[in-house]
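Sample log: Polysaccharide lyase family 8 protein.
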Amino acid sequence: MVAPRYTSMHCTHLTLTLLFFSTPVLTSNSLTGWAGTTTIGPTSSVAQRQDAVSSMSNIRKGLIVDDITDSPDTVAQWLSTIGNDGKWPAKEIDYTSGCRAQEANWPAQMHWQRILSMTGTYSKSPTDDLRTAISHAIDYWFKNDVTNAACLQEGGGASCPCTDGTFWNKNWFANIIRIPQLVSQSCLLFDASLSSSQKAKCTAISQRSFDYFYQSNPPGFLTGANVLDIAKIGVDLALRRSNATLLRDAYAQVHKDAVVHNATKVDGIRFDGTFGQHAGLLYNGNYGKDYLNDLLDLELVASGTEYEASHEVQDAFTRLFEADSWMLIQDTQAKSKKWDLSVIGRMITFPSADEQATGAVEGLINASRVSFLASAWKKPSISSFASALQTITSSANAGSVVGNRMFFTNDYMVHRGPNYVSTLKMYSTRTLNTECVNAQNPYGFHLSDGALYTYVDGTEYQDIAASWNWNLIPGTTAINSPSLLSTSNLSCDKSKFSGLEPFVGGVSDGTSGIAVMRYTDPSTRALSWQKTWFFLDNDVQHVMISNISGSSVQPGNVVSVLDQRTYSSSKGLFVDDVQVLQNNDGTPSVGPSLPKTPVKANIWHGQVGYSFPSDSISSNKFTPSVSVGIKTGNWSSVGVSAQSPTTVDIFTATITHQDFTAPVEYSVFPGTQDATAFKNRLNALRLFTLSNDQHISAVYDDSFGTAYVVFWDSNGGSVTFTPPASTSITLNATSACAFIYRLKTGSITLADPSQGTGKADVQVTLGGTGSPPPSWPTKPKDVKNISHTFALPSGGMAGLYDYLSQ
């Protein structure tokens, strides 16, 4: 069973008025004093350590209280309905436990969530009635708490039969993390009012979770975000008991994990700042967000003490923040930040109203706390992330981060223009495609098949997952069969796979990039293809698809998806320079519709344009088409949300492949304000195709004097081109690779997408009598070729680019 990760925070500020905890208030003006109040080292006396632990405890209590958002009126309502036995009515809390309980987001945990909120209110406005109610509620759970240790992980099995009537859940996460989290925090806040027996039970519940660190053969779940979740329980226990030894041990567990992890499919922070969980899944926006919050709180508490993070831990944490900055999207309508869909995994199945990973990031990460930590550690990158959370931009580019980055450890590329963001998620032998757990995401098989999301206003894919066609994920190529009209070919038990192909990844020079994916369907082996995405300097993307094959697939039965998103009514839809749908009348629930319509040359919609080579369409090699229509979906069919069905007006643009032997290419123009701007940029494009087949994918962008080359074969390849007013240039490599060659500077940025080790040799050769590139050396005279040897990184950095200039 896998952790549901449903806890939502509503953190918008950080002013920690710590009430009667006798702790300095944390504000933006008191950070220095706060950090200095607990400064001690390993040689400090026992009394000094105890003073530090006391100060840390007060700061921790303030952080807990600051996270509680339930109003006094809400708490008063709970007081009016709680029974004398400490239990709330079944209509308010479903206490169903054991085998019959809902495994994801266990409803019974609401009992402790209420207790925590009540203890927070009590810390501000203590009353006898509130203290009594809290005590009764605590006793009610403790009387029913699980007593059979086997039920913590093996509920429903022979060692913990369904007849066990105590409080436990078949999902280990509820028993080992979620309930102990709430218990440890509640008991820390309410410690002065706890009876001796209550204190003992608080300790027992927290300790049984932390004790998993001491097992000689630790359980498999003790990785990634789970490590910090459990260590944090230990910290809260140590602070409540003023146990400096336990506190030191808990922080040691935190810092042992909060470093860069380099093994393939490992959980935790990776070299490029991505966060992995469940052995091969990209999860910065969910498990990574929890990890960030845990570490953020723990390090704010420990700052200036012997328990604070080492430079190694600080550097790893900074990498996480830097990567997260590339994954933020500005929702320009809601004026909030969202995560890119590709970094939240199965949580894509929640509507934003549930305030989970699809909701506002400002409600999930406290920007003020991030700023405090950035100041304490003097880390500008962390400060930039906080600023991005707090600054509203006019486009989807939250934080105004511009450029290209390849996150090679998780087969993920991000390209950010001045007014748009494009993200690309692939998978390989080193990563997984998706997961279906706790009834979430049963149809997500294609979510990493080269999924390309394009955000301009940030609302493109808002709350669409219940309604869209799961076989037509944006950017992917799939079999176009009758099953595409439904989800009959998709299921939870056939959703999670490792990729079959190693040649997946890309290269980036920070400004532009190339992403490549060789794909074979890991479930059926019925479809294979190669695809290259060129992210160019001038806010143009060029896509090449080649080498399509399949054992039982016929021409016309394979489709590539340009996009599937919410229809944008602001400026209509243009097909072949003609507006086919007018602007909407302002009632999106009954928005416009358009039956499947063929395209001959171009599409413009939602500030994104697409252009296709006319010769390929006229020869019937492939057929682009668009459609718009209302779709209604039930969230309960894709996950566990209880929200009402959602109706979405969906725009779908696809290419049907009529001839598998014919490679396909097209250009994408994101961030074009209207159809006229799109045409102007299209007419200004000076992009030349050098090769597009199963061996070589290459283009030359004359506007910037840059060649983009992919050699797919293991022995490399060669490609020749002649820039205008220049001599011919031949680029040769001795191994499979992807590289960017800038003629003006002579620089070559190269990577091996398969992440093999060793070297790559590249040779640049001039031919003919024209002018050489501007960067070509003049000495010795008449040099005709230059060779470069790239020593490619290995281990955890395999896949990272290498850069050479002449």
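Observation: The first strand starts at residue 268 and ends at 269.
Observation: The chain has 16 helices and 33 strands.
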